[in-house]
Structure formats: C-alpha cells, structure tokens
C-alpha cells in the first residue's frame, strides 16, 4: 500500500511539474508581429476571405483564397496608439489576366496584417512576372511628331501564369499611359496560358 501511495505521489508531482512547464511554455510563446510596411506581396498562412467577389452567370460569388495563396498588398492602415498600435491591410489578387481582372470586385476588406495571417514575400519566384517586357530599348521618339513615342510590341506575364501579348499597334493605342498605369488593365492582343 505504501508503494502504491509513493507511486501516486510521484505521479502527481510529475503531472504538477509537467503542467507548470506547459504553462511556462505557453507564456513565453512569441506574439504575432506586424509585417514590414514596404511589403508588396504576401502568402496566406490559412484559407481566408479577402473581400473579393467574382462575376458569375447568377451574380457575384465570394472568392475564398486558399492557404499559401500569393496576394498583393493594396493598402496598409494603422490602428490604435503606441505601444498598442497595430496594422491592417487590404489585398488584391495582383496582376492577373485581363479577362479575369475585369470580372472581380474588391470591397477593401481590412485584415490584420501580421505573421499569424501572412508570410512576407521578399521576391517573386519568377521576378520577370508583373513586368512589361519589350524588344530592344523600349520606345523611341518619333521623328515626325514632338513627344510622340513609337512603341515596339510587348508582352506581360501575369501572376496566374498567362502571357498577355500586345502588338505594336496595340501599344500605340495604349500610348504612353503604360508609364503611369498597369498594362494588365488593357485588352491584350492574345492571352495564352503558360502553365
């Protein structure tokens, strides 16, 4: 009986010690940190609703992004006062193909911008994506008209793996607006999928 009592006391002490260490571990768990303000792209750490809706035959349907989805940061807002200040951000699917881009509406839903929800993306896996690529040195000034650029054809690789091509004529129609706005908003000449 005394042996059983000793084992019971030892077991209770072990549980108490183990419980104490578990509590200490929980207390020292790191707090979620806000992501850097210069963040352009993030990956989701869990499935979530970013406030985007896609047009369907019957209306608009909410887009629920999956874990590890690449998103573009659209805006960051501060809340509260120091030292309890925190940030929230709204997101888009980024530069996607023209046809899908014009089927999506965003509600500017603000989501807590921290390491619990997102992973900071320093560079894209294929940095060539989201950049307008053209033959030669880009545009040259026309000899006949002052400040009228002459464009070469171009292509653009979207984040959803489409190549949007723009002919010389199409680039001339877009004119010099591509310097100040996103070309993926403009109707491409072709848009084949690459992956």
Structural account:
- The strands form four sheets. This protein has a five-stranded antiparallel β-sheet, with no helix packed on it.
- By secondary structure, the chain is α+β, with helices and mostly antiparallel strands.
- The protein has helices at residues 2-27, 98-101, 168-174; strands at 41-44, 48-56, 59-65, 70-79, 86-92, 104-106, 111-112, 118-121, 132-134, 140-141, 149-150, 154-157, 163-166.
- A hairpin with a 2-residue loop joins strand 2 (48-56) and strand 3.
Query: Major beta sheet, specifics?
Result: 5 strands, antiparallel
Number of separate helices: 3
Arithmetic mean pLDDT: 76
* Number of E strands: 13
- Major beta sheet, strand line-up: 7-5-4-1-8
| Element-level helix/strand string | HEEEEEHEEEEEEEEH
What oligomeric state is this?
Answer: single chain
Stretches where pLDDT falls below 50 for ≥5 residues? 1-28
Radius of gyration: 26 Å
Strand portion, in percent?
A: 25-35%
Distance between the termini: 72 Å
Q: What sort of overall outline do the alpha carbons produce when their principal axes are compared?
A: globular
Helix content: 10-25%
Helix/strand structural class: alpha+beta
């Amino acid at each position: 009986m005394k042996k059983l009592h000793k084992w019971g006391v030892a077991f209770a002490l072990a549980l108490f010690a183990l419980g104490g260490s578990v509590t200490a571990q929980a207390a020292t768990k790191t707090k979620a940190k806000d992501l850097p303000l210069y963040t352009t792209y993030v990956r989701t750490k869990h499935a979530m609703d970013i406030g985007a809706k896609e047009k369907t035959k019957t209306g608009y349907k909410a887009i629920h992004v999956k874990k590890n989805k690449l998103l573009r940061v659209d805006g960051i807002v501060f809340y509260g006062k120091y030292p309890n200040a925190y940030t929230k951000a709204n997101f888009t699917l980024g530069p996607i193909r023209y046809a899908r881009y014009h089927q999506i509406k965003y509600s500017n839903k603000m989501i807590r911008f921290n390491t619990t929800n997102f992973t900071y993306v320093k560079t894209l896996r294929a940095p060539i994506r989201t950049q307008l690529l053209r033959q030669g040195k880009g545009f040259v000034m026309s000899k006949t008209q002052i400040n009228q650029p002459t464009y070469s054809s171009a292509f653009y690789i979207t984040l959803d793996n489409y190549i949007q091509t723009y002919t010389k004529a199409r680039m001339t129609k877009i004119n010099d607006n591509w310097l100040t706005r996103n070309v993926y908003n403009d109707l491409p000449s072709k848009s084949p999928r690459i992956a």
